[in-house]
Write a structure and sequence with these properties.
Elements (H helix, E strand, L loop, with lengths): L2 H15 L4 H6 L4 E9 L3 E2 L3 H11 L4 E4 L6 E2 L4 E8 H31 L6 E3 L9 H10 L13 E3 L1 H6 L4 H15 L5 E5 L2 H7 L7 E5 L3 H14 L4 E5 L4 H8 L5 E3 L2 H4 L6 E10 L1
Parallel strand pairs: 6-11, 7-8, 8-9, 9-10, 10-11
Antiparallel strand pairs: 1-5, 1-12, 2-4, 3-5
Helix pairs in contact: 1-3, 3-4, 4-5
Length: about 290
């Protein structure tokens, strides 16, 4: 388990349990044990199973979890994700935190799969962005992968993405200085991907002439502009990848993918994902 994920789990448990689960301690005999399962109430693509197992383990090492599904597997309504056995008190104490993690991550994986399915056959990759819940980035990016998407970059440290504000910050002569800046970036970071955001086709044409650039991000462009950008790429530099982003919905994404671009990045995968409706149901209890 990644140390940051483990710390997040412990934080989630601490804020929920604090000094103790007083309801379970009052109602449930200490010797009682239960067996239950977590199910999905609607079709869903599952993500977060390893986190769920760790939450149960952190609450009580006597909890035993058996997986009924695999990460990234699509389930129908009513299907179980996992079964769990252990002291009844500990299962009830862990329940909400487990469902919170699974609900959030399964929601992301399920939405990602819908976007991935919408572009099947085009060869276009579906990418996430850095629009993530603070502290949840590793988990949310794994959920995107479970849904069939790809991770754009982990953060500011593992790829170069020159955005419009970077260019504005260079001043009025920003574009004229760009070739020298890109050359220095490539010299300082020879193995990292360099991507640059374009708001206009004039910028696309200019960026295609910069041999250091690996990918051009086509921001909020129309279908006609995207097709023109693809044609420019074919004329000037076929090695550069083209990524579309900005306001791309499920209804529009197929048309965007068919323009000939290579990638589509979507903040919606994480910031607009609806939590999956999951529940834990006891199948039987007994006194151990």
């Amino acid at each position: 388990m990644n140390p940051s994920t483990l710390a997040l789990i412990k934080t989630a448990l601490a804020e929920d349990i604090a000094t103790g689960d007083i309801t379970s301690m009052a109602f449930i005999p200490e010797a009682m044990r239960s067996h239950g399962r977590i199910i999905t109430r609607h079709p869903a693509v599952i993500a977060g199973l390893a986190v769920a197992i760790e939450v149960f383990r952190q609450v009580d090492s006597n909890n035993e979890v058996t997986l009924c599904a695999a990460e990234g597997e699509g389930l129908e309504a009513g299907a179980p994700l996992l079964e769990v056995s252990g002291p009844t008190r500990s299962l009830l104490t862990a329940e909400r935190v487990v469902l919170n993690f699974l609900g959030r991550l399964t929601g992301i994986a399920s939405l990602t799969r819908r976007y991935v399915d919408a572009v099947v056959g085009t060869g276009v990759l579906i990418l996430d962005t850095r629009k993530m819940t603070p502290g949840w980035r590793i988990l949310e990016k794994e959920a995107v992968k479970a849904g069939g998407g790809k991770n754009h970059r982990q953060g500011l440290f593992d790829a170069i993405l020159v955005k419009d504000n970077h260019l504005v910050a260079l001043g009025p002569e920003g574009l004229s200085r760009l070739p020298q800046v890109l050359q220095k970036i490539r010299a300082d970071h020879p193995t990292l991907k360099i991507e640059i955001e374009a708001d206009t086709l004039e910028q696309v044409s200019f960026f295609l002439e910069q041999r250091e650039v690996n990918t051009i991000l086509l921001d909020n462009m129309s279908l006609e502009q995207l097709r023109t950008a693809v044609a420019l790429r074919q004329q000037k530099n076929r090695n550069v990848r083209l990524e579309a982003s900005g306001g791309i919905t499920l209804e529009k994404i197929r048309a965007v993918a068919e323009t000939g671009i290579d990638e589509i990045s979507l903040g919606a995968l994480t910031h607009s994902a609806v939590w999956a409706d999951l529940s834990m149901e006891f199948e039987y209890t007994f006194v151990g």
